[in-house]
Fold this protein.
Amino acid sequence: MAEEKKADSVRLDESQENEEARQDELLKVAKESGVSAESLKEEDKFQYKIEDVTDEKKIEKADAKYTAENIQVLEGLEAVRKRPGMYIATTASAGLHHLVWEIVDNSIDEALAGYCDHIEVTIEKDNSITVSDNGRGIPVDIVSKSGLSGVETAYTILHAGGKFGEGGGYKVSGGLHGVGASVVNALSTLCEVTVHKDGGIYYVKFVNGGHIVEHLKKIGTCSPEEHGTTVHFSPDPEIFTETTIYNYDTIKNHLRQMAFLNGGVKITLTDLRPETPVSEVFLYNGGIREYVSFINAGKLPINNEVLYCQGVEEVTLLDGTKERIYAEVAMQWTDYYNNDGVYSFCNNISTKEGGTHVEGFNLALNRTINDYARKNKFLDDKSSNFTTDDCREGLTCVISVKHPNPQYEGQTKTKLGNSEVRKIVSTIVGSYLQEYLLEHPDQAKLIIEKVKLAASGRMAAQKARESTRKSSLGITTLPGKLADCSSKDPAECELYIVEGNSAGGSAKTGRDRRIQAILPLRGKILNVEKANEERIFRNAEIGNMITAIGAGIRENFDVSKIRYHKIVIMTDADVDGDHIRILLL
């Protein structure tokens, strides 16, 4: 008995040691990835149930019964016209196009619910917009709380819609606040809605900021298989005083992105304004994999295929409720040197500031790459781990999460805050990437060598920056090419950067020696977009400019030490001169 207790005690001690080691390793990776220890502890409060998902787009389908009772009224319509900036941010061109996004998002939500696979957007000759989809159609029966039809409720009452959690008509939606349709109506001189539903065709018309001309009425019949919603609206020039002209490329780029993020959904864009109408179709069955390939067009890939992983997980939250969260990630390394190629989305909304889904990706990427590198002797015992930036250099990645109850930091929806998403994405990416590297050693070697090169460049650049910093802190010798001015007052001093010694000679002759300094360049400077930091800081021309200007670089930059308050670029009025100016800027 004593021996059994002793054995149990030994096993318990080993278990505790293993858990402590796991926590230490996790915290180490978290620190390198920029994730706080508190955030990781919060994840352990959730219960995770991992599902084996074989269907690429297996999101739980919403209830096919979509009636007026699914429309929930939160509050009445306020004076949107008086404060449009509260709802569309601006009344300039971006706000004008935001009206289109709101209506298109409603159609995309139907696609996410599993009932729409074709959306048509038309820019009419008079710059009005028509958006049609083959979804279920907005409910036409009466909403008990408003006494109006579902269409009129959605288009005239702010915070009314079928997207408010349990009991709503959608499992996943990009619209949380239910203001899209009503805001578009409020900011339009004309808004017409036609619904094909349950064998009937229904129509309602609003004018001058949402006033109903005539209540919803049935204007015809259609086949029971025919269903969907068509919205036609004209933006109000009294609101959009800057412009009411839609930009084709702006709409095209947005719709193409929506098609990438919703693989299999066909989106057609037609512009009737030109003498010969223009029409394009966006359909990407490969979804975000094709998105990565599109972004990487013109770049040299390191790994020969776009890596893709996805999964659905059920999470039990603190209050006992269960949520099914879908995540998919596509990625590919290229020969580029940037490390900002991660594009993240939640419910088709771009999360430009990242969030927990990006943190989860960073954790998995950092941990998996370093584990593989050490086990396969790419890193020895004396070498420090690769950083997350090392792993992300040249990487193009698209992260898309579908969440029934997303929480964003701030009103702009640009940073996802759901802590449970971090572990979900980390688990999906970590499991897939670990298996891929093991099964594809040749591709793994190319990826690790790319990361290793990035780490070497980072350390070399750090040494170069330190050298530059020490030079700037000591007595710096100004470049020999610099014809400096005599004044020591930066406020009146000017630096003219000229093209070549010949131009430099002419400029020196005609300058005011007291306040004007001349620095000739030797032809075109290094293209810093395509160079790593080591090459940048070793470049003589760039070094001369840094020294001459005197303010230092990076963490040692101090604008108070700048030697000239005006810097003028003077190049020839030709193609080469234009190129030099672009490279300098």
Notes: Residues 8 and 14 are 10 Å apart (CA to CA).
